[in-house]
Q: What sequence folds into this?
């Protein structure tokens, strides 16, 4: 898959597990995805970042975990969709949960998609390649 459209793109990954951020970064590199990856440890940290950057520097995609301390994925997505300057950023949920109720809840809140975190590294690359479909144009 060609990823030249992601050269100037930014992805904000919100997850409390720093190892997951490293795996996502590595799989993006291996997939040829040139987007810049910014990691936040929970929704509160992500909101501080999003509210501090100029509108032109907002991410093209937000990848969101569900279970985190302070602001979990539910609270974070609710907040994102309630803020006019953030509501248009596509959000992809990326969680270990395969619960149908979780998937329905996040779809109703406006998540662009829902991916279960894979166990195999090759599956990460497949998911990363799907991110391009959801990226907001810069």
A:
């Amino acid at each position: 898959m060609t990823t030249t459209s992601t050269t100037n793109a930014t992805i904000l990954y919100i997850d409390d597990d720093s190892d997951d951020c490293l795996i996502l970064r590595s799989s993006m590199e291996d997939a040829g995805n040139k987007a810049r990856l910014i990691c936040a440890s929970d929704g509160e940290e992500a909101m501080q970042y999003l509210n501090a950057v100029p509108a032109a520097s907002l991410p093209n995609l937000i990848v969101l975990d569900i279970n985190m301390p302070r602001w979990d994925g539910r609270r974070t997505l609710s907040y994102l969709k309630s803020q006019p300057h953030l509501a248009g950023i596509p959000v992809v949920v990326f969680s270990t949960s395969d619960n149908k109720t979780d998937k329905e809840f996040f779809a109703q809140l406006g998540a662009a998609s829902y991916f279960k975190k894979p166990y195999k590294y090759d599956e990460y690359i497949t998911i990363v390649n799907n991110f391009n479909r959801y990226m907001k144009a810069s």
User: Anything to note?
Assistant: The first strand starts at residue 10 and ends at 14. Confidence is low (pLDDT under 50) at residues 1-5. The beta strands are 10-14, 36-40, 61-64, 91-95, 113-116.
